[in-house]
Amino acid sequence: MSEPLTDTAARPAGFEHVSRVLVELGHPHAPQFLAVAARTSQEAADALGVAVGQIAKSVIFRRKADDAAVLVVASGDRRVDEKKVAAQVGAIGRADAEFVKARTGFTIGGVSPVGHTTKPVTLIDRELFRFAEVWAAAGHPNGVFRLAPADLERLTGAPVADVVQPVA
Q1: Long-range contacts of the stretch 24-27 (C-beta < 8 A, 24+)
Q2: 73-101 tens-digit pLDDT
Q3: Is the distance from CB of 40 to CB of 69 less than 8 angstroms?
Q4: Residue 96, C-beta contacts closer than 8 angstroms, at least 6 positions apart
Q5: What is the pTM (predicted TM-score) of this model?
Q6: What is the C-alpha to C-alpha distance for residues 125 and 73, in angstroms, rounded to an integer?
Q7: Which of 3, 86, 103, 166 has its Cβ near the most Cβ atoms within 10 Å?
Q8: Residues 18 and 110 sit within 8 Å (Cβ to Cβ)
Q9: Strands 134-137 and 55-63
C-alpha cells in the first residue's frame, strides 16, 4: 500500500480544487495524495491495498445531441456498457483527452466525480454498492478520496443505474 505524501506544499491545482469542493459539500474524508500515480483502477487498488472493484472510476463520454459531457462512475472491475448508458442519456461517443480536460477541468486518470468545470450528466454504477467503502479520483492521478457508494449519490445528485456489461 502506498503511503500518502505528508508534505502539503505544491499540491496540483486539480487536487486542491477537489479538496475544497469536498469540504464545501461536507464530505468527512479529506483526499489523500499518493506517492505513486494511480491512472488505472488496478494501479489505484494496488496503491491503496483494496479490491479493484472498490475503485470508483470516472469514465467520460460525449453526448452527441448537445456535446455535453457524460460521466459514468463505475466499479473498477466492471466495463461500462455504452449501449446501456446511451439508453439512459441519448447517443454517446468517445471523449478525447482535450474534451475531458475542457469539460471537467481534470486530466484523464484524475477525473473526480465532483468539482467539474461544467456539470456533467452523471450516472452511478449500481455495482459499486457491493462495497461499504470505495475510492474515487481527487482531481489528479495521485489524488484519491474515500467514500461510501451512497455518498456518490449525495455528492453528485446522480441516479444509480445499470451501466456495466454483465460479468462473464
Answers
A1: 25/114, 25/154, 25/155, 27/145, 27/147, 27/151, 27/155
A2: 999 999 999 999 999 999 999 999 999 99
A3: no
A4: none
A5: 0.92
A6: 6
A7: 103
A8: no
A9: parallel
